[in-house]
Every structure is written in C-alpha cells, then in structure tokens.
What does this fold into?
Amino acid sequence: MIQVQNLRKEFGPKVAVNGVSFTVEKGEVLGFLGPNGAGKSTSMRMITGFIPPTEGSIKVGTYDMLENPIPAKRLIGYLPENAPSYPDMTVSGFLGFCAEMRGLSGDAKKRAVNRVLEMCFLENVKHQSVETLSKGYRHRTCFAQSIIHDPEVLILDEPTDGLDPNQKHEVRSLIKKMGETKAIIFSTHILEEVEAVCSRAIIIDRGTIVANGTPRDLKMRSSQAGAITVKLVDGDSAAVKAKIASVQGVDEVSVISERPLTLRAFPKKNTGSDDVARAIAELAFKERLPLQGLHVEEGRLDEVFRSITLPDNKEATK
Amino acid sequence: MIPTLTIAKRELRGYFASPVAFVFIVIFLLLSGFFTFMLARFFENGQANLNAFFTWHPWLYLFLVPAVGMRMWSEERRLGTIELLLTMPVTPWQAIVGKFLASWVVVAVAVLLTFPIVITVNFLGEPDNGIILAGYVGSILMAGAYLAISAMTSAMTRNQVVSFILAVVISLFLILAGYPPVTSLLTSWAPTWLVEGVAAFSVMTHFESIQKGVLDSRDVIYFFSVIAFSLFTTSVIIRAHRAG
It folds into this structure.
C-alpha cells in the first residue's frame, strides 16, 4: 500500500531525512521509532503529501504522491503531531467538516461522524467546542478525524502522546484492530507500544533507517537476547555458578543477585538457547537445586534502541 | 469545486462564531455613518448621490479589511491546522480560493448592510441608482483586492500583527500611488507617463473611475488582476513554506 523509496529531505544545509526506503502492506502495523529530531515527523509529512521531498518517490496504493496527490491523499488518514484542530468548532462540527472534505455528505456524513464519535469515546463532548476540551479529548478528536473516511492507509504521528494510561490502552487496541485490514504507520517514543501493537518496527536515527524488522527480530539484537536466567530459592552463589558454567554449551555465567539467587548463563555462539536451557534444567533436577524459575531472555527493545541510537555505541552492536 | 465551498463554509462559520465578523460589521457601519454624515456632511450637501459615502471607503478599508484577512493563513500556521488541511484531498489553490471567498462574503455583507443610505437618498431626492450600484460594485471589488493582499501577507507569517501591518502598508501604497495630493507632488518633477503609470497601479484611480458610474472593463480587470496576483503569490508562499 505504501512504497517509499530513497526519500531525502534537506532544510537548507541540514539533511533531515536521508535515503529512507520501506514498504508497508495491508494488514501491517509499522512502528516508527527514533530519538527526537531523527526525522520521523518529516518522513510522515512527506508521505502524507504535506511537504515535498527533495529526492525520492512515494507511492500510496497505485498513486504517486508527487504526480497525483489528490487520489493518493484520499486513501490516507493522517494524525499530525500535536493533533491540531480548529478551536472554535464543536467536536461534531469539526468532524462533519472533515467528513465533507473527504467527500461524504448527507446520511453518509452523519453515519461517519457518529461512528467515529463512538469509536473514540467522544459522544459526551460532541457539542462542546474544541478549545474547551482537555488535551486527551482534543487528541482523540483529531484521531477521530483521521479515521472518519475509513481510510486504507493510516499515518499517525505519536497517537498516544498526552493520553492517560486507559486512553493509551484504548487507542492501542484500536490501532491493533484496524491494523488487520489497513496499512498503518505510527511513530512513538514508547517502546512497549511497539511490542504490543506493531507487526514491524523501523528505527530511524539522524535521517536514516538503522534497524528494520519485527519487534522480536529487533529484540534478538540485544546483548542479553538468548541468555538463560536461572532463579534459585537459595544456595551458594560461587558453587552454583561453577556448576552451571560446567554445563555443555555455556560460555559465561554471571551472578545477577544473591537473594533470591539469580544467575545468567550466556550460551556459546552457534549453540541454541533452548538446548542449553534444557541442560541446565536437567542439572538442577540432578543436583536437587531449589529451582524457582528458568527462562530464556527475549532481549529488551529499550536496550537495542539505546545501543543503536546512542552515538557512542554506534559500532558496538555491529 | 466542492472542497472550495466546504472550506468557504467552514471559514464563514469561523468568522461568525468568533467576534471578528460582528466587530467588523458594526465598526464598519458606525464609521461609514460617521464619515458620511459628520465629516462629508451628506445632508448639508443637498446632492442626490452617494459620493460622500463612497469617498471614504478606500480609507476605511485600509484598516478594517486587513483586520478581517490577517488571520486567514497565519492562524492555520500557528495552530498547525494547515497540515491537516493540506493533507486532505484538496489542492492548495482550492483552499486559498475558499478562504478568500469566505472573507469576501463577510466584507460584502457589511457593505450591503449600508442599504438604508440608499433608501434615504431615494426618499429625499432622485439619484441615479445606476451610479449607486456601480459604486457598490466598485467598493466590493476594492475590498476584494485588499483582502487578497491580506491573504498574501497572512501566508507570510504565523503572527497576525505582522500580517496586519504588512497588509496595511501594501494597501496604503496602492492608495497613495493614485491619491491626488501625492500624484500632484510627483507631476512637479516626474514625466507624465511615469505619474500616470504609477497611478494606474492605484486602487484610487480605478475606484474613482467606477464611482462615476461607468463600469469600465479596465477597472474591473484591474481589481481582478490584483486579486489573482495576490492569491497566486499566496500559493507560491505556501508552497515555499512547505518545501522548507
């Protein structure tokens, strides 16, 4: 649905986005991650046709955004950063205006407005003017605007920014549900959100894509991914450490905490974590160690994010 | 076409939802009444025409029209709604025209609400209503030209005050270029073709010519070309602003 190729944007001497390429298909939710000023919003503004790229091509559906912007824009629903809306309009007035702009009128318009009022829990404020609303409501009003024409492509710039935890949860489940039938791109700072909602994530730093994969793939790049954490009720840390280190396939063991005794075993390269975990479980059974927990670390997204986007650690992960 | 009307409708609602439209209409009516009756001494003149009424319009509009137009694009930029508007399936041109038309309607409503003076002059004497009609057409066209200039200056900045001042300065230039005290100052040293050339750019020259009751196509074309040029410049500014 969305094909972005070699996108580049210069603001004077500053290169905001440099050679970004990716595709998003229907049924995919793409998470856009990156530090502030990495070029996330600029990329989204180019994809939605608000600012023209210096170089590169954008295709939405079968339409080229640069050559044929009107039909391309028709396919897109967009929630800009900071969720702008006209403060002097009422919520339903604003949504009605957006519906009309999307070519809906009469009954279809009324139905569309009522549908999004319900979906975004705005029914009890629909006659209030936007300027009297709290930030969360304003945000949801603008979000409602983006889905009013049931678009095939949804581009959301920080859709959960400024929402309380309940609202965040609602918006996330909404995105996840819509992601089954739409192509969605959304940017966020919240890493759990990526794990909870995205089918794929892109990390962008200083204008270029530094990682692209499923949240699971990305987590595997963490230094802890694949390590086996062993938790015991009690025991002598040095003795247990030596025993675990003797298990076949274990490269290194470190003690994380003394009480409860927690150790982390890193498997040797080319050794499956699952095999090592099984070997450790057998050892614990044989030695009658008071095993409390044993699991294979999936890796942590925040660690990956930090290691990729912090300038000092740039080479460390490669 | 439909998006243009949708935008115009929303803008109109915006003007009347905020005090802008009402303040403009009331102040315009009060001031035009004051100028016509107190300064130009409409009754004492004893003439069955509305010259005393229309003469003031270029000066009244100078301050009032930029006040209506100053928020047209600067407000969109300040609120960030321009991003919303221009990612909808509309061309920038449709948005520009829609917004312009809405503001023009506001000013036209104010001008047309001066109709009691037409009734008065018809009641007291026998004026040439054709001239009066031409006067109204000319006045509304001139307001359109000022508004288009305000649209252009409001696209330049997100600050309404800056937008207002720029619009006033440009409009003032368009008045003074053909204002008799200024042109007579120029004739003393500049060649006639230059003075007339500069005066041809002035709203005064064309407004006064329409005032005489002749809707000359040159005058109408002048106002429409000021509008077209300003709105075109608006689109260039908006595109440049988006391109970064």
About this structure: Residues 308 and 315 of chain A are 8 Å apart (CA to CA). Confidence is low (pLDDT under 50) at residues 313-318 of chain A.
